[in-house]
Specification:
single chain, mainly alpha, Four Helix Bundle (Hemerythrin (Met), subunit A), about 55% helix, elongated
Length: about 240
């Protein structure tokens, strides 16, 4: 069968990998903070989506969808590909419907319909596309399968690691609880040093500043050893 010969060809595999790499590079260049999407990137995304759809159709035709022995849907990595492509199709359809709407409808459009689907929400599924590399590269697929098979064997190791995390967290909260709240404070104004210097122990404050206790920890209060929970986060 022609489709089966195509999908088993090394050229097809190389083209698939190249398309995935180029798509990942284009997604890095795109700016998701723009209010209005760039037409150039929208067109490029549609081209990549078309190529992914052609690849999926060729595999389904060449391998069969479900009933054959080596069917497309019976491989878990092909299921991942199928989900990635099918979740990207609504984005292209919605974008196309927005493009062909009459100008009168756009001008008379009021508040957005809160019950409708958001194109931006579907567009977030594009980040899954680089995962198609796993199904395209046979060696990478073997490595991922080996990794997933090794996870149950790591249970005892994870328990021991968690136990040491707890021990170190308790020690940290007892030895350094509240220490990261100490700051160099101006003697005249009572304001923290502009560099937010943590003092105490061997760290001394510059002239005109004294070491005082504040109510703030570094990194917006995240980095501290004031209790076991935050200590475990710091140890991790």
């Amino acid at each position: 069968m022609i489709a089966s010969a195509i999908i088993t060809s090394p050229i097809f595999e190389n083209i698939s990998i190249t398309v995935i790499v180029l798509n990942s590079f284009i997604m890095m260049l795109d700016d998701p903070t723009r209010i209005e999407p760039d037409p150039f990137f929208e067109n490029i995304e549609n081209v990549f989506l078309g190529l992914y759809s052609v690849e999926m159709v060729l595999k389904i035709v060449g391998m069969g969808f479900y009933f054959s022995e080596n069917a497309y849907i019976k491989d878990s990595w092909n299921i991942l590909d199928f989900v990635i492509v099918t979740t990207s199709l609504p984005t292209a359809l919605m974008s196309a419907s927005e493009t062909i709407r009459p100008i009168e409808e756009i001008e008379l459009e009021g508040e957005p319909d809160s019950g409708g689907f958001s194109v931006g929400a579907f567009r977030a599924f594009r980040v899954l596309r680089p995962l198609k590399t796993i199904s395209s590269v046979k060696g990478l697929k073997v490595l991922m399968n080996a990794l997933f098979s090794a996870i149950p064997l790591l249970q005892d190791t994870m328990v021991i690691l968690g136990f040491f995390f707890i021990i170190l967290s308790i020690a940290g909260s007892n030895l350094m609880g509240g220490m990261l709240k100490s700051r160099c404070i101006s003697v005249q104004t009572g304001i923290n040093h502009e560099d937010d210097i943590i003092c105490g122990g061997e760290n001394s404050c510059p002239g005109g500043f004294f070491c005082g206790k504040t109510n703030e920890n570094p990194n917006y209060g995240v980095s501290n050893f004031d209790n076991v929970s935050y200590s475990m986060l710091a140890v991790f």
